[in-house]
Amino acid sequence: MTLLTRYALRLLPLAIAAAFAAPAQAQSLSALYESARGQDAAWQSARANFESVKARAEQARAGLLPSVSATAGASTSLYENVPKTGSSTSRTFDSANTAISVTHPLYRPANKITFEQGQKQVEAAQAVLQAAAQDLIIRVSQAYFDVLAAQDTLTFVRAQKTAVNEQLASARRNFEVGTATITDTREAQSRFDLVSAQELAAENDLRVKRIALDTVTGVNDAKPLALALPTAMPQPVPADPEAWVRQAEETSTAIAQLRQALEVARLEAQKANTGHLPTLDMTASRSLSRSLGGSATSASTSTTHNTQLGVSLNIPIYSGLSVQNRIREAIALEEKAKADLEKARRDTGQSVRSAYFSVVSGGSQVRALEAAETSSQSALDANRLGYQVGVRINIDVLNSQSQLFQTKRDLSVARYNVLMGNLKLRQVAGNLQAEDLTNISGLMVKP
Questions:
Q1: How large is the C-alpha radius of gyration of the chain?
Q2: Mean pLDDT of the chain
Q3: So what's the pLDDT on residue 83?
Q4: What is the distance between the alpha carbons of residues 177 and 167, in angstroms, rounded to a whole number?
Q5: Which of 27, 110, 364, 407 is the most exposed place for a label (fewest CB within 10 A)?
Q6: 209 with 3: CB under 8 angstroms?
Q7: 424 Cβ partners below 8 Å, 6+ apart?
Q8: Where are the alpha helices (DSSP H) in 178-219?
């Protein structure tokens, strides 16, 4: 391998960054997330659900407010008098009536509890909406980094193909002058064919990953900004898994949903107990009746006004044990909600710890792979030199090339995994926000 080729391989990380540094339509992660918010079906569904829950909660307020109704009617009657003797008489008369009535609940504890349940359900729906927003952040980020990883893989495979092709040409020249056997040529040709197949697979994988990114963001031919190299991988702050667990207890969307579900269940148990209690309403009504042309008993026009004001007391006495069974059902559902909440707390704690150590381990893996990349490059240089002086064979060089480019691919994927790991840690802790994408965008090549 020539000195120029060795120099080019050493500059490969910079070449990769330069290749994707300034595409004309490159978009940042934050920009693509904003595009996704405007068209993502899951996010739109969660937002619509939140609006419907708010409207349902306001419906429950009606049970605490007065209700007013009005009625009106008109009729025409035909009156006939047919005596046993003599001629019959008949006449028609019209009547009209209007009425307005008001009912105001004075004591209806079940209605008050229903209203409180509605407010808790709004808070739960808010947590669901927040979870949907965080899920969208994760889906967009995953698609974004998948494209970058696929681009890096394709770049590495093509660079390896170039290097293997040069090694193949060198083996052919050495065979022609008699300093190498045909085995070296065949080994290089075999490796070249393998890398060519890997290139086709990498091209297809990149195509698929780009389609996935376009689908989730709604942007045609999205071009993510590449990761600036070298860069320090972000680590969790605070650097204490238990601090993250405590934070998740307060901000986790999963815990928040089930905490509100428990409050709703407790209120439902209280509402079930109100089945034994009386209800008291205030009622008022005003009616007007007017007969035109008389009535069945009078031939003169009359007008009648009627005003009523009172209270209505309803005392439940016996309902076939339905109230008692409803209470038992509500208590059982409350116990279920408690168990669900406790399970969510335990699961969230486990997920937070797992995500935290995954990020920490990923950072260590990146540092180890960076050292391995340097060592693999040195090993490749040594094997090439040894091949040129006759102390190494062609397969040693080819294996060193494969090792170097595999290390580069692993390092690229490890970096993106660390970035995704930080986002997923914040997601399970419940404090993932769009601003976190801005911080990651700061690690990318400037457009």
A1: 39
A2: 87
A3: 64
A4: 15
A5: 364
A6: no
A7: 138, 355, 358
A8: 182-217
pTM of the full predicted structure? 0.82
Token pair 């050292």 is found at 371
Q: What is the secondary structure of 108-173 as a DSSP string?
A: -HHHHHHHHHHHHHHHHHHHHHHHHHHHHHHHHHHHHHHHHHHHHHHHHHHHHHHHHHHHHHHHHH
Q: State how far the Cα of 65 lies from the Cα of 43, in Å rounded to an integer.
A: 35
Q: Output phi, psi for 231, to 5 deg.
A: -145, 145
Nearest to 148, CA basis, from 422, 416, 373, 442:
416
Q: Which two tokens stand for residue 239?
A: 């650097």
Taking the C-alpha atoms of residue 370 and residue 378, their distance in angstroms, rounded to an integer, is 13
337: left (phi over 0), alpha (psi -120 to 50) or beta: alpha
Residue 264 pLDDT: 95
Plot region of 78 (φ>0 → left; ψ -120 to 50 → alpha; else → beta) = beta
- Amino acid identity of residue 75, one-letter, is S
| Domains observed in the chain | 3-65+108-276+320-441 (1.20.1600.10)
Query: Which of the residues in the chain have pLDDT under 50?
Result: 1-9, 11-24
